[in-house]
Here is the input.
Amino acid sequence: MNFEYYMPTKLFFGPGSLEKLGTEKLPGKKALIVISAGNSMKKYGYLDRVKALLEKNNTEYCVFDKIMPNPIKAHVMEGAQMARDNGCDFVIGLGGGSSIDSAKSIAIMATNEGDYWNYIYGGSGKGKPIPNKPLPIIAITTTAGTGTESDPWTVITKEDTGEKIGLGYEFTFPYFSIIDPELMTSIPPHLTAYQGFDALFHSTEGYISNKANLMSDIFALKAIELLGKYLPRAVKNGEDLEARSMVAFANTLAGIVESTSTCTSEHAIEHSLSGLYPELPHGAGLIMISLEYYKVFADKVPDRFVKMAKALGKQDARKPSDFVDLLAELQANCGVDNLKMSDYGIKKDDLPRITKHAFDTMGQLFENDRYKLSEAETLGILEKAYK
Ligand SMILES: [Zn+2]
Here is the structure.
């Protein structure tokens, strides 16, 4: 029955809410705007709009535009140096989870000495406490997947070792976040699906985690319900603003689930895959392993699986396996039921190394499972999921 609830981020939600950047009190005088190396923020005019709104709000800025889909430590260090060199006193992450997560990590390293990995728990991280408070962070999300706008988490890969590890604490919650579904209408269908399933799994994992509680359950079940109902619509017609808004809302709820409950070993296994194979999008990796993963847990947490099946729309669900069937159906409806690890160069022979890497780097997530997976069972999930 016990839980802690801490969600200090002010959220501006809804179509047109980007305009708030021009009128709200900002946490500094000069922003480092962090965006991806791709050109979508420029092509769709989002970067220009953000610049214009900052100017309207009498705020200076500079732009760091190198972030990759699986963001790396080198760019965190480089972005932090740029923030220091230019006297930036807050950081704006504009884009998807990779840009916003990078903004959070840059905010830490702009005020702290040494190497980012000194502050990472797990793998080769040194696990040191972070001495100085990070710069304030503003999150402007143009995707609906990671929930990073409403949670403290940032996930960065150490590129030389393929360790992909999360970090988050009370000072990495954004100062405020803007969730404007109008900025999401340009996301192509396959990415909409990958990101939507990431949000779904933050919710389902948070719901079956042994850290689930009265508060996180409310957010998790609502997010599962909304994603089941609206994600296929958002995938099929990106301009469907109602579907985009509901998926965005579900994603924000899923971020609160991540803040009040936890992810489980599904995320540890996926971080190992996309840490070692950075071309693999996180959401796609999760989809690839999900059916085999949830099959293992269906009988371990039966009541919660029945409730998740009901949330996905099957009111008369009775069996835990109903959830797995509905998950497969949802993946087919979103056109992501045939993703293959082999398409990303992952070899079957490499699965034992991937399994070991999951335990070595994000072993703590296995502690959140209600049933403790062995390395052999984890390898079994990957082998059955392999195509
Ligand atoms: Zn995720």
